[in-house]
Specification:
- This is N-acetylglucosaminylphosphatidylinositol deacetylase.
- It is an enzyme of class 3 (hydrolase).
- InterPro entries: GlcNAc_PI_deacetylase-related, LmbE-like_dom_sf.
- One of its GO terms (molecular function) is N-acetylglucosaminylphosphatidylinositol deacetylase activity.
- There is one protein chain.
- By secondary structure, this protein is of the alpha/beta class.
- The protein has a single domain, classed as LmbE-like (Rossmann fold, 3-Layer(aba) Sandwich).
- The chain has 14 helices and seven strands.
- A seven-stranded mixed sheet has the order 3-2-1-4-5-7-6, sandwiched between helices.
- Helix 7 links the parallel strand 2 and strand 3.
- The chain is globular and about 55 Å long.
- It binds zinc ion (ZN).
- Zinc ion binds next to loops.
Length: 287
């Protein structure tokens, strides 16, 4: 959960804005998506930017087909990782989710747990492949330190029962600089680096590009074209190889998944869904 805006601070303005914002949202977004749809469809073609088809054989081994997404809070999976989840499933991977807290910072943990299952189901991950941890030392909080050893212990125990060849999680900046996100990244980087189970980090977007929404894929495409024109193929590969893009229909699927997180749908979250780059693009790197 992005840490910057806490629900309590916005309570008075929420009720009047809640009815208004979705209308504004769709009024702007539907024409925009119509305009951009051909570009995003073109970009998402496997031979351009697909990652998992090319990664599978040379890097992960022939039998690689199971991926585990490790997140900190319900809604991380859809707000940050949905292009990756949808791309993996499209490529035939079996995706499972491990969420290390129930997101109980405002006492809504039980509800948010159910919301998480609903979100994953909409993205194509069945309930029996999603696990939520509710450990007293791993509570959703900006001020609680999550012990790396405990995180590691939980992930390794999970892998004993549900094996995977690929783990996907946050990078060192944790997308939003949330300490819970960063703690997971740190704990897993130290252990899974150069092991048979490969670790992928989701790159935190640069501030300049964070809220460029569907314009960011166009920027990436221009970058790719320029690289080809100038003959700098390696440059293009370096920047584009680990990029996963959603089509407009996959983006819509992500929005549907986010609707499961009813407790989180305050007005500013609609802005996030409209403008966040991560609803469209995931840039990943192998650790
Ligand atoms: Zn989070």
């Amino acid at each position: 959960m992005p840490p910057t805006l806490r629900r309590s601070a916005w309570t008075t303005s929420q009720s009047s804005s809640r009815h208004f914002t979705p209308l504004v949202f769709f009024a702007f977004l539907i024409p925009l998506l119509t305009l951009l749809s051909p570009y995003t469809s073109l970009l998402s073609r496997k031979h351009h930017l697909g990652i998992f088809d090319s990664l599978q054989t040379p890097i992960l081994g022939d039998g690689a087909s199971r991926a585990l997404l490790v997140t900190a809070h319900p809604d991380d999976e859809v707000m940050f990782f949905s292009p990756t989840i949808l791309s993996l499933i499209q490529e035939g991977w079996e995706v499972s989710g491990l969420c290390l807290s129930s997101g109980n910072d405002t006492g809504l943990g039980t509800i948010r747990k159910q919301e998480l299952y609903g979100s994953y189901e909409t993205l194509g991950v069945s309930r029996d492949r999603v696990k939520v941890i509710d450990h007293p030392d791993l509570q959703d909080s900006m001020s609680v330190h999550w012990d790396p050893a405990l995180i590691l212990n939980i992930v390794e125990n999970h892998l004993n029962d549900h094996s995977a060849e690929l783990i996907i999680t946050f990078d060192e900046k944790g997308i939003t600089n949330h300490p819970n996100h960063m703690a997971i990244s740190k704990a897993l980087s130290q252990t899974f680096h150069n092991k048979s189970i490969r670790l992928l980090h989701l790159k935190s977007p640069a501030l300049l590009f964070k809220f460029t929404g569907p314009l960011y894929p166009i920027y990436l495409n221009i970058l790719s074209i320029l690289s080809r024109i100038t003959g700098r193929e390696n440059f293009a590969e370096k920047h584009m190889k680990f990029v996963v893009l959603s089509t407009s229909s996959q983006w819509y699927q992500s929005i549907q998944a986010m609707l499961s997180h009813k407790t989180q749908l305050v007005w500013f979250r609609w802005l996030y869904l409209t403008f966040s780059q991560l609803m469209w693009v995931n840039e990943l790197k192998i650790i």
